[in-house]
Amino acid sequence: MSDNTLLNVEDLVVRFAVKRSRGFGKNAYLHAVDNVNFSVKRGETLAIVGESGSGKTTAALAVARLVKSYQGKVELNGTDLLHLSDEDLRQARAKVQFIFQDPYSSLNPRLRASDIVREPMDSLGNMTETEKSDRIDFLFEAVGLRPEQQRLFPHQFSGGQRQRIGIARALATQPDVIICDEPVSALDVAVQAQILNLLRKLQKDFGLTYLFISHDLGVVQHMCDSIAVMYMGKIVEYGPRLDIFNVPQHPYTQALLSAVPSVDKARRAKSRRILISGDPPDPVNLPDGCRFANRCSTAKDICRRDQPKLDNGVACHFPGAKL
Amino acid sequence: MALLSVKNLQIEIKTRAGVAPVIDDLSFDLEAGESLSFVGESGCGKSMTALALMGLLPEGVGSVAAGSITFDGEELTTATETRLREIRGNDISMIFQEPMTSLNPLFTIGEQIAEVLRAHQNLSRKAAWNQAIELLDAVRIPNAKARVNDYPFQMSGGQRQRVMIAIALACQPKILIADEPTTALDVTVQAQIFDLLQDMRRQTDSSIILITHDMGAVAEMAERMIVMYAGRKAELGPVEDVIANPRHPYTAGLISCVPHILSTLTEEREKLVEVPGIVPPLNDFGKDSCLFASRCQQAQAQCLEARPPEIEFGPEHQSACWRAQEL
Question: Which B positions 118-157 lie with beta carbon below 8 A of chain A?
Answer without folding.
Answer: 142, 156
